[in-house]
Amino acid sequence: MIKAHFCPQCGNPLQSADVDGQFRPRCDAAGCGYIHWDNPVPVVAAIVEMDGAVILARNRAWPEHMFGLITGFLEKRETPDAAILREVQEELGLNAAAAHFIGYYPFFEMNQLILAFHVPARGEIVLNEELAAIKRVPVERLKPWTIGTGPAVRDWLANRASAA
Do residues 139 and 52 make contact, with C-beta atoms less than 8 angstroms apart? Predict the structure, then answer.
């Protein structure tokens, strides 16, 4: 299935073509040869810890009961650790000093590669326009979920337990 419909280089329609054994959108215009690779998008995620609790947030577009980690896209010329500190500041109004890398997690359903960090924070939370609500979950009550950022929560909790 073609997601991109027109070539960003020459404007001609893209056609599905076999490229290295996989069908990909490709421009067959003479002299162009553009291929839409559809590479995963890097996303950063934060387990924001404050006063023995993890801050989970609900995006305004999500259902009432759905909460998750603070996440955002890695921007051009930005390191992953700087990106997640920026996202925590933008979304929660917190100026955290450090981001500790947990791991990377493929999120195939969204074509993303999640780079997860533990971000200890202090201060007063001020939600930005993207978020509808937060909830504070005591670390001992936090339970990982199966997809997206859930495996990062699982690994972070396991590392905490083994270090204790």
Answer: yes
